[in-house]
Model the fold of this input.
Amino acid sequence: MIGYLIRRVLQALVVIIGVTIITFILLHMLPGNPVRAILGPRASKADVASLTRQLGLNKPLPVQYLLWLWNLAHFNLGFSYRQTATVSSLLAARIPNSLLLVGSSLVLALVLAIPLGMFQAVRRNRPDDYTLTGLAFIFYSMPTFWLGIILIIIFSATLGWLPPEAPQASASLFSQLNALILPVATLTLVTLALFSRYMRSSMLDNLVQDYVRTAKSKGVSNRRVLFRHVLRNALIPVLTLVGLSIPGVVAGAVVTETVFNYPGMGYLFFLSAQNDDFPVLLGVTLVIAIATVLGSLVADILYAVADPRIRYV
Done:
């Protein structure tokens, strides 16, 4: 297991470096000038040239990337001249908020998806199963931004029950819990639809296995078979899915944070893209890449924990 983890960490480093290279190239292919974005449209050519040299943007692209990588090795993600703050401080202020949104949505979706999937599997091919399946397909196929706007129209604009946007200060996130309901609900519903479908399929696969028929033939009650035997085996692919779904949930969080003006990392990425703030864009991309490879690693570890037959060498 230790050897496997070492190999996976090395692979993760290669993946992260590859992601940063691709992102670095794509950012420099985008229209717009980050120096102009900093100085404004009325800046003179001399000022633009001076700041370009100061930021090292006049150097070849490979040299710029190596300099950024060198600074990264020294835990320096750069400086945002648009927001007059270091990228590290901006991320440090936003990452806890994004973790709150993503973490609460994942936990809530998983808690709801397990009993829903079990219920659908037991009641398969019945009206209630068809109804829940249809709702799952609707939420899963619905764009995140569209679902968020619909929830705002219904519960904020029409009914007036909840505020239309999230708290704007990190310190007030927990003091205004009602403002977190719509962002969390938006991300939860999309994730719940995916988890519940996988849970239903996994339950159906296990309900027809030989060990289920053997347990029933020995007089074990259906309830005991379902919760003692079938549930644990059915959770294995779902637990794996949790780790693999982290990148998708993070991507959905970027859209959700933008819709609700949620002060998280995704909204920071959106604002930085509008302002050609390359250092922040690279920093956010790096964090998302790390979350992606960690999610894949967590999925493998959870799979081995849930199924003792799995051994990594």
